[in-house]
Amino acid sequence: MPSPVTLLHGATVAVDDGGRAGEGGDEEPPLVELFVTAIGACADAGEWRDALKLLRELEDAGDATDLAPYTEAARACRAGGEWARAISLLNRVRERGHSMRGTVGLYSQVIGACDDAGEAAKAVEIYALGVQDKVFTHWHAGEPFSLDLHMFSQATAVSAVRYVLQHEVGNFLPADLKIITGWGKHTVEGSVPTLLPRIERLLAQELSPPLPYEKQTSLHCDRDGCRLLENDGCLVVPVQELFRWLVDSRPFETYCINVPSARA
């Protein structure tokens, strides 16, 4: 079977012979669509070298104005275990001044590449960039001190929790910390949720020390009596456990408020 690169080059000849549709109109040039499809095929096959070669050709032609080819190239790097190259792709996009709107897919692939390779710290760094670029928002607008991760991929959700624990939790703990997972963005309807057990594994096995949690419960009453029901889409970290974890895992000055001395 011909490689994606061979198929693409054959197709581009036809496009060049027939001219580019969409010139003077609003349609995306077919050449870009062909490249995106071919780079995606490389990603499916784990051929990251071919994917980056095609992306470079698109850039050299001045047609890499859309984020789709970068996202597909990052996916190829992830499939090939090339997390550092995936980060380089994101840096190229940022350096070229692309709008950060619509880059959730690109960021998620880069974070996923780092997470797959066991580079948790790098994944958190990339997530922090996404927060800075206003690509990600993790606090629930309607529930205080609640992380809303239900639209995140597993790797992005894990990085979000790590980021919050490292950078946003400390001086003020107003209540129990809720981690809302829902069913997870990539969970197939009718199947077992995948995001919640991934966050459970992070809290119980990957953090040092482990961070105790429980399932959110609610009291349900009917004619047969009252009972507690577990919410399989929300984990709760009790405030006292969160404070204890901070004491055990972080330097005192990073989680304690410095109260100014009284003046006469």
UniProtKB/TrEMBL annotation:
The lineage of its organism: Eukaryota, Haptista, Haptophyta, Prymnesiophyceae, Prymnesiales. Keywords: Repeat. This is Smr domain-containing protein. Residues 144-240 form the Smr domain.
